[in-house]
Design goal:
single chain; two-stranded antiparallel ribbon; 3 helices
Length: 137
């Protein structure tokens, strides 16, 4: 099954080291794959914001006993532009997928992770005070 290039995908972030709160950008670390060289993402185009966060909590954060800080959203075509694939892997959840393949060399992995981070948009789990209508005084 091929995922449409315009489909939105999301990488959930369980560490503060995966994004920069100061400028709301995603770090490459958020896109470094596990040792199995598969990077877990979720297909979110058809979901409401609350449904997206529910998946992140139930299927990503809670099973690991971690806090869900945010997510990195991008389009499948951003992955395809780097000669990678978004492959459905539905044993975890019907909307789960993996970004593959990944090279062997650490520098090559970091290059691809950096490119994905640059193409992604950070979405915070909790809105900043500015997003709520003004900073606290």
């Amino acid at each position: 099954m091929t995922i449409d290039p315009n489909e939105r995908i999301s990488r959930f972030m369980l560490s503060r080291n995966e994004f920069r709160p100061s400028d709301q950008t995603v770090k490459a670390k958020a896109f470094v794959p596990a040792k199995n060289k598969r990077l877990s993402v979720y297909r979110i185009s058809t979901l409401s914001e609350s449904a997206i966060w529910s998946i992140g909590n139930e299927f990503v954060a809670e099973p690991r006993g971690k806090t869900l800080y945010g997510r990195a959203d991008l389009l499948a075509k951003d992955v395809y532009a780097l000669q990678q694939k978004v492959e459905p892997e539905t044993s975890i959840h019907l909307l789960h997928a993996d970004i593959i393949p990944w090279p062997d060399g650490r520098d090559d992995i970091l290059f691809l992770a950096t490119q994905l981070a640059l193409r992604s948009k950070f979405v915070s789990r909790t809105p900043s005070p500015d997003a709520l209508g003004g900073a606290e005084e």
